[in-house]
Amino acid sequence: SYEKVVCSLFLPLLLYLSIMNENNDKYTEIIKSLNDSLSEENKKLKEKIGTLEHKIEKIEMSPTSIGTEQDIISELIDRQLRANNIIVFNLPESTNQDYDKLKNMFNNIMMANILNFSCTRLGKLIQNDNSKPRPLKVILRNSLESLIVLRSQAKLRSSSDWTNIRCASDRTLKQREHMTSLRNELQRRSPQK
């Protein structure tokens, strides 16, 4: 009878311990699985942080990034000064006829009705039959006239005499560098043909 009492008391306890061991094994597996998942997620986050740190360093070291307030102010002033200007490409070189050619192009071909402007050739004159004509910087009265010319340059393509002439806004050095980097990025991203 003593054995029955002990068995009756210890049997549930043994059963309870057995269940606890099974549950303990399950919990251990769950904890191990969670640790593995967290470890993997932590590894991915560290890789992303490393990539972001690299990108930040690259941006900070970029020569096109504007650093100081003085640089920003001088860039804005330079852009404001250039807002009235356009650059004309591929207009054949002539001694003193650039103004007349431009006046004809603006008023007869583009119908822009621009009367007062000044123009100068950019770069050194190279005496070579195969050389491209130097770009022409045109200074207009206001930025509205430059927008009118830039918007109406499509009319040049319809005229056989003016089809190769191109106009562009007068960009600052930082703007040109930025456009070059954007073109390079576009070429890098676009699929090779």
From TrEMBL:
Which keywords does this Swiss-Prot/TrEMBL entry list? Coiled coil, Nucleotidyltransferase, RNA-directed DNA polymerase, Signal, Transferase
Instruction: State the signal peptide span.
Output: 1-21
The highest taxon in the source lineage is Eukaryota
The UniProt entry's coiled-coil ranges are 24-62
Offer an example of a GO molecular function term for this protein. RNA-directed DNA polymerase activity
Name this polypeptide is given: Reverse transcriptase domain-containing protein
Q: Which organism is it from?
A: Aphis craccivora (Cowpea aphid)
Taxonomic path: Eukaryota, Metazoa, Ecdysozoa, Arthropoda, Hexapoda
